[in-house]
Design a protein that fits this description.
Layout: E1 2-4, H1 10-26, H2 39-44, H3 46-57, E2 69-79, E3 106-107, E4 109-116, H4 119-124, E5 131-134, E6 151-155, H5 164-171, H6 176-180, E7 182-187, E8 192-196, E9 203-205, E10 213-217, E11 221-224, E12 231-240, E13 248-249, H7 260-272, H8 282-287, H9 290-295, H10 297-313
Antiparallel strand pairs: 1-10, 2-12, 3-13, 4-10, 4-12, 5-9, 5-11, 6-7, 7-8
Helix pairs in contact: 1-10
Length: 314
């Protein structure tokens, strides 16, 4: 993970927060993590944002420039807010260890992660991390020789539906206590393997300053950190598009075309062979989200309120 100190000015961040708030007010986004809510703002400021990413990843892709990066998507991740669970799969919007879905089909992709929070909230919080990334060099047993992840997620075994005793028997573990000391890799081979929690070596983000940004490969395992800080992260995913810089199609995973934010980028790539056609289908698909957005207006209001508080302090 790369940290770029004070990469974004307070003026830019204020405009980004305004853009996000305006998108909530107009419901111009998908419900799940408000995907594509800042698509117009990010497209307008792509030279700046892609330039930050290109500079960060230059040691991995020598000679890469901003124009060789493609915007894939953007989303909003509020954590520890009172009523802002806008992710359909995760309680309190906290992520477990995972690799992003698009990286299972195409890559390499990098996330530009922008943390936002109220200063008052930061003063009251602990010194735990906001986000953790398991780098390849620090965690070689989690990755294949070519750098690809050995599994798409690290699973808490006690989150499985089977009773703990049954899981212990299935995996050859002596006790539930011993089971708790491990995570499960659901490997690409289909087999479940144990990985000791104590062997994880994460790179962490602790008490970042407003304006700091972080860039990491989204094909590396990452997770929300344990910090109790009430925060909102805005994340923008970029794809390296040039084969000379490593672009590759890993597998043509079947996509449900025109079915929400999940498949629109990849589906359009497979259908049209480009990285821009997907944009024309975003607004019609977002129109289909309006019922879900309206039903969850209280959650949207919670995120909006926090953004307004952040904007005042910026």
């Amino acid at each position: 993970m790369f940290k770029i100190k004070q990469a974004l000015s307070r003026g830019f961040l204020k405009d980004l927060v305004k853009s996000t708030a305006a998108g909530i007010e107009s419901r111009d986004c998908f419900y799940d993590q408000l995907h594509y809510i800042n698509r117009h703002f990010i497209e307008e400021h792509k030279p700046l944002l892609a330039g930050i990413v290109a500079q960060a990843i230059a040691p991995l892709h020598p000679g890469i420039i901003a124009d060789e990066l493609v915007i894939v998507n953007d989303f909003v991740a509020p954590v520890n807010l009172e009523d802002a669970q806008i992710h359909t799969a995760h309680r309190n919007n906290k992520y477990g260890w995972h690799v992003d879905g698009i990286d299972r089909s195409i890559g390499p992709c990098y996330n530009l992660w922008i943390p936002l929070y109220r200063n008052g909230a930061l003063k009251d919080t602990d010194f735990q991390s906001l986000i953790d990334v398991l780098g390849r060099r620090e965690n070689p047993k989690l990755y294949l020789e070519n750098g690809d992840p050995r599994a798409y997620a690290l699973i808490d075994p006690l989150s499985l539906s089977a009773p703990a005793a049954t899981i212990c028997e299935y995996l050859g573990i002596s006790s539930e206590y011993a089971l708790r000391q491990n995570l499960l890799l659901h490997c690409l081979s289909g087999k479940l393997e144990l990985h000791p929690r104590a062997h994880l070596n994460p790179t962490t983000v602790i008490k970042p300053q407003i304006g700091d940004v972080f860039v990491f490969s989204s094909s590396q395992y990452h997770a929300s950190g344990p910090s109790s800080l009430a925060r909102i992260a805005i994340s923008i995913k970029f794809l390296v598009r040039e084969p000379r810089h490593g672009f590759r199609v890993l597998s043509a995973v079947p996509q449900v075309h025109l079915a929400g934010w999940v498949g629109v980028f990849l589906g359009s790539y497979y259908q049209f062979g480009d990285f821009s056609s997907y944009r024309k289908y975003l607004s019609p698909l977002i129109a289909l989200e309006q019922g879900t957005l309206a039903k969850n207006q209280a959650k949207l209001n919670c995120v909006h309120s926090e953004l307004m508080a952040i904007q005042k302090e910026i």
